[in-house]
From TrEMBL:
Gene3D superfamilies: 1.20.5.3310. This is Sec-independent protein translocase protein TatB. Its main location: membrane. NCBIfam families: tatB. Keywords: Cell membrane, Membrane, Protein transport, Translocation, Transmembrane, Transmembrane helix, Transport. InterPro entries: TatA/B/E (IPR003369), TatB (IPR018448). Residues 76-97, 126-181 are annotated as: Disordered. Pfam families: TatA_B_E. The Tat system comprises two distinct complexes: a TatABC complex, containing multiple copies of TatA, TatB and TatC subunits, and a separate TatA complex, containing only TatA subunits. Substrates initially bind to the TatABC complex, which probably triggers association of the separate TatA complex to form the active translocon. It is a single-pass membrane protein. Part of the twin-arginine translocation (Tat) system that transports large folded proteins containing a characteristic twin-arginine motif in their signal peptide across membranes. Together with TatC, TatB is part of a receptor directly interacting with Tat signal peptides. TatB may form an oligomeric binding site that transiently accommodates folded Tat precursor proteins before their translocation. Belongs to the TatB family. It is found in: Cell membrane; Membrane.
Length: 181
């Protein structure tokens, strides 16, 4: 950019350290960085405005070229529709022969016309009843209060009887003083 070598940068840094001092050097570098940022933003803004101006100039030139082409096309296609209709001495087309026309009309008249179509009668559809059928209600399950009687042939084998209750050992009798006997 400025074509400064590393040795020159070190020399500038050393001089700045001696002149400004180690306490104020970070603040001075921060200020210098802010100023460089402002200069770059201004340069970018100027460049953007310059590019916009160039685009507008190019668009203006392009618009002028399109208008010139449009006027030249319009001038070249200046067409008068009445001019070809004028008779310039060319012979007119021959008129059709009256006898041929009458013969063609006779042939057309001899052709039978189409038969009429049979009449179509559409009966109106029956109107559905206005009532909407109700949904069938669900049947409730009945609770049986008595056991149903099942024939012995279909009856299941009886369940085994429950085990007899276990007999407990009697507790040892306690003596009057509270100790076991």
């Amino acid at each position: 950019m400025f074509d400064i070598a590393w040795s020159e940068l070190l020399l500038i840094g050393g001089v700045a350290l001696i002149v400004i001092g180690p306490k104020e050097l970070p603040g001075a570098l921060r200020t210098a960085g802010q100023m460089v940022g402002k200069v770059r933003r201004m340069a970018a803004e100027f460049q953007g405005q310059f590019n916009d101006a160039m685009r507008e100039a190019e668009l203006h030139d392009l618009k002028k070229q399109v208008e010139d082409i449009g006027t030249s096309v319009q001038a070249s296609t200046n067409f008068d529709p009445i001019e070809p209709m004028k008779d310039f001495g060319t012979p007119a087309a021959p008129k059709p022969d009256d006898a041929a026309v009458k013969e063609a009309e006779a042939k057309l008249a001899a052709i039978p016309g189409p038969e009429p179509l049979p009449e179509v009668v559409i009966d109106p559809a029956p109107v559905a009843a206005a009532e909407v059928p109700a949904k069938p209600k669900r049947k409730r399950k009945t609770v049986a209060t008595e056991e149903p009687v099942i024939p012995e042939a279909e009856a299941a084998p009886p369940e085994p009887a429950a085990k007899p209750a276990r007999k407990r050992k009697p507790k040892a009798a306690e003596s009057e003083d509270g100790s076991p006997a």
